Amino acid sequence: MAAAVLERSFIEICGFERETATRVREVTVNLGVSALPGGQKFPDSAGAFHYEESGKLLSVTSNRLIHWSTSGDTVQLVETSLDTNLLNNVVRLKFTHCTVLPGGVAIQETLNNVIILICTNQSVHRLVLPHPSRMYRSELVTELHMQSVFTDVGKLSLQDSAHSAIIPTSAGQTGSPLTSTAWLSQSGEAHYAVAPPTGGITVVTMPPHDSPGPVCVLELRRSSMMTRLSGWMPSAMRGDQSPADLVLSLGVRELEEDSFIFALCQDHKLRMWSFREQACLLEADMLDYMPACRGVKRLSGQGHRLHLAFSPSTGLCVCVYLSVPHRGQFTVLQLVATDNQRYSLDHISTLFSTQETLVDFSLTSSDVWAVWVDESNASVVKYINFEHNSTGQWNQVFVQPPPEEEVHIGVDQDPRETYLEVLFSPLRFTASAILKALQIFRRGSDRLCDVSWEGLKKEVTLAVESELQSSVTEFEFSQEEYRQLQVEFWSRFYSCCLQYQEVQSEPLSLTINQNTGLVCLLRKGFVSYLLPCFAVDHLYLSFDEYLSSEEDTPLTEDPELGRDVLQLVQCVRAVSDAVSGEMAYEMEKALEHLQSPERAAELVLEHLLSNDSENVVEDIQNKLQDIRNPMAAMMVLLRELDLETDSEPVPEGPLTPGHSLSVRISLSQLFGSSAAVSLVCQAVCHMTMTRAMFCRDLLILQKLYLRFGDNVFLGGGAQLLQLQQDLIPRSSHLLSSYHLLKHVSQSLAAAVPVDILDANLQHLTVLELSDSPALSSSHRSVLSPQTVVELFYQTAARKMMVSQIFSQQQSDSLLLWSHMTSNLVHQLAQLLWPNNPGFQFPECLMANCQYTQLQEYVRLIGPWCQVNVGSRRFMLGQCYLANGEGQKALQCFQEAATEVEKEEFLLRLTGSEEEESASTPRLQYYNKVLRLLEDVGLPELVIQLASLAITEAASDINSQAALWTRIFKHHLDLGHNSEAYEALTQNPDSSMQLDCLRQLVVVLCERSQLHDLVQFPYVNLHDEVVSIIESRARGLDLLAHNYYELLYGFHINRHNYRKAGTVMFELGMRLGREVRTRLGLQKQVNCYLSALTCLRLIRPEYAWIVQPASGAVYERPGASPKRNADGEFSSEPVRRQVDILELKDLEKEYILSRSRLTLAQHHPPSAAIAGSASAEEMVVLLVQTGLFDSAQSVCQTFSLDLTPVFEGLTFKCIKLQFSGEESQNEAWSWLAANQLSSVVNTKESSATDEAWRLLASYLDRYPSSNGRHHRCVINKLLSHGVPLPDWLLNAYKAVDPASLLRLLLNFDLLDAAAELVLELVDALLGRGHQYFGIERPLSATSSSVWLPYTAIDQLLQSLSQTQTNSIVYLKVKDKLDEFHDLVERTTKHRLGVR
């Protein structure tokens, strides 16, 4: 990257502050002196001190200086660094009743301290501050902010004798000293030389700051001898007291362990005093070096100035300025030492200055720099090399002109907006000037303090608008009248700002860093820097007399071509002078509205030709005819104006391994302070403004060439053709480019909330751009606000440019001002140049959320720049995304896709390890954009772009599958179920298809959109769907998810009733095992009922299902193989036995589950155990709860014995019979759960009665063989000692009297047993046989009858053993005898009949 050609001239760049209130600490020093009579005032002055190592990269003082300004009794000191921002760097010292003398401030550095010497008309002061290298002892200073040397100045006791002393006055001396100088000796003593009004020099000496001692005063006058007295008693050098030796200017230099004091006196003589010898060693009359000096001797020479400069090569040089009306001159002399300690002055050069009033000048080892003010109070700065200057031609310094006195407002512009834009542009006004104008405009109302830049703009708007409103007396007026009022009041405020800006811009001094060549112009309100001027800018900015006097230009080595270039530039300047402000505005507006620059130039030319009253065009034509080769001259200018380069900047040069850590850290800070940011970016702004006008005027001149045709072209048509087809389009393109750069360099960056920055960083991370050099997160500048170019410089460009510069030079080389600044400005302009391949600037705007500015940048560049077209479309898409315009963003992203393989930014966007699977860069690009759209949350756009990307991936199955998966996902998220299913079916990858299918099932289930899920056809996917749903059903909580119901509905919808029944039966089984609640039992009943319904819809031969064996483990598809305890894969599991369940089996399960539910309903605690209870267990549970109907239903279904039911019911009856009222009431609940026979009973019955009635009804309803049920009931009653009810005895007598007898005997009920035997025998004999179920009693014709003789024998045996039962025994015995007689007779009769 070749640097642009530099000229000898410089250009001023004003580093305007953006803070409205600089934090100044004020320190007052009061030594108790009274003000001197007469109150002599001195003009404001300024100066600067440059650190010795300010040109060394590795020094903590690199690019660092202290500058000061004096005004009356005040000295303001400011420490500035171009590398880091300094804290507490401004201090204002106020010396009560004293006036700071001209030349009264001097700063010197020692190894450990920075020492400031200040001399007022009554006192001398010394401030001892720590040296920056001692404040930061570590070599590696990484802070973005550093403390200034003034940080602790408030802790110093400046009234102490170590810091201050009063200058004693000689007897009879009146008035104030006129000038002074101060210096620090090698021994550490502070010397102050003042020029009293009586002539001569008074030197006040303070002892070293670390060793107390008396203050010495010495007076130096012309005399044959000198005497020195110590202490506070001054001594006079006797001799001639003529006021001719009144000193006007002082300078001092330490040489050879002596201090030489140079004094330029009122008699035009230069005297050199030896402080050590206390003698005047040299006297020279300056008029000897002035030609035609007649009459000058009589002048007082009040404006004479003196400056010294020392360098090892030239020694000590003295420059004397002789202020003579209309012909001031600089005389440069060199001090030469001769034998015997004698000295002489050799004349080196005499330089004549212009007629302006000199403000100040500086001397270097080779140059004289001077600043004047002309009659219009404008600053004039020039410099000249006093050694090699045969023509006496001063080199130009292009100072910044004051702001325009009038603001041009177009008919389509709002006056308020236009004035605000001019007032608050980064180039024209300081914040303090606007603030002071505002105070005046508000007529001294409340002072504004610590208001922000934006706040100041609002205050200005409010003040002007309030003033306007208060002046309006009419209630109605036209829009045009209101516009005129706006212009009037805004121009009034603008004029006020102009006045204060003029005061702020008053030049005070020049300062030059001897080591680096840094040149600063110290103005009253700010400091400006002088940067080397590029040759092409120099030509355009130069005054006509300079252009006409120059014979060559560094733009070309060919002298003839150089002359042509100079003449061509003179013509361009003539065009520039002829273009009116109105036409310039029209041209600007045309560029702003993207109209053709060539067409706009033609319109301006038409205007010039039609309004050429001063024959400007004719003069231009005459000059053009003198140019031999205008095409070549134009090509030279266009080549130099074009910043296009093919090379890419080195992204991270400072971090290369070739540099040490300390060098890399220093490089990371170089030119990184807010002052440097403002300086470099304003230099770029001025350059682009100058070149935009240059290109504009050159384009107009080229159009004029075409108009003139052969009249000015010696070559004829070929050159005209080249002009029309090549040079004019190039000029037009350059004009558009520089207009763009001018726009962005003045465009302010917007403040962005932190949350938006964080969100943007997340988007950049998605794009994998967050670590790009152009997007590296850097701390924002303290400037408030920044321009977008300043933002770019600080966050990205500075590192790249410094890396580029130091890749070509050693790190220990000097930081030369001209080399560094010109390189930075030129490279920054190249980074911004739209035709260069680098795309860092738009990246930076995107990274910092400057979307409005980025959109405007893309708009301005769009029609004419063909570089990075796709990248710009991508950036515009980002802006639209940020503004919520998704469809526009998508359109931009699609347009950018066509340039992916051609542009570096888009290639970097696509190049990442994760996206290597994509076959083409364009697919990788689509993937990145899709991820971005997903991150922003725009699924509709993701679907659109993915659908487009699929057409690009025709041959890439993997990419197609990924894109279809994306489309499916976002359709599903949006609730587009049919579209999601369609995308799923299009997916060519079976595994991804299965994943999508699984997700579809899960999501639709969670949304309860089961109808859609069931209705989809699932072509070739039926088994997979079933498998997925089964897997989900078996793997998840039964109550939280409804996958079984879904699967049931799925099969029902496809008329697969057996599978539907199987699903419901499986669900019922699991509910019984896993959900031991009433709700689970209810669902189980419903499941079995649904399963029954399904099987009843099938032909009987197919009405069966397969039941997995108890405890079956369901294997999920895709599950990893399991290992045993030894880590080996388990063997193939043995197939488990399965049971075939038919309809009757399901009915049994249904009855059982219904009984479980009934049990849980009547006794909720039983639900926990009922779920997995068998039929036998259920009967027991039901009986315990009193649900006898349900119990007998289970018994009948499963063919179980009813004995437990009867025993349980009998026991309930027993308990009720002997329980209290509470139990009676509780019994009604279980009695109500059983169906009682509907017997009308008028008598009010109790629960006990109802229970007995229920038992009786059960015995009637469920008869058993041999009265088994009666027997168990009677057995239960007798075992509990409960008397047998008659109905029960009667009922059992009719069934099995023998069993009844045995039961009575078992429980030792002998009386009842005897009674039963008696009745039984009577029944056999024919008395009451119907009560015992005997059809026919004993007779010869009836069938055989029998008696339970064993039981009767047991009874008789028992009765015979006790005396109390003897009567009963006899009765039974007699009854049996009677029976036996009848049997015998009957038997004989039957035998007889036979």
From TrEMBL:
The keyword Transport applies. One of its GO terms (cellular component) is nuclear pore. It is found in: Nucleus. The keyword Isomerase does not apply. Residues 558-792 form the NUP160 helical domain. Coiled coil: none annotated. InterPro entries: Beta-prop_Nup120_160 (IPR059141), Nucleoporin_Nup160 (IPR021717), NUP160_helical (IPR056547), TPR_NUP160_C (IPR056536), TPR_NUP160_M (IPR056535). Residues 64-536 form the Nucleoporin Nup120/160 beta-propeller domain. Keywords: Nucleus, Transport. Residues 833-1097 form the NUP160 middle TPR domain. GO terms for molecular function: structural constituent of nuclear pore. Residues 1142-1391 form the NUP160 C-terminal TPR domain. It holds the Pfam family TPR_Nup160_C. This is Nuclear pore complex protein Nup160. It comes from Xyrichtys novacula (Pearly razorfish). The lineage of its organism: Eukaryota, Metazoa, Chordata, Craniata, Vertebrata.
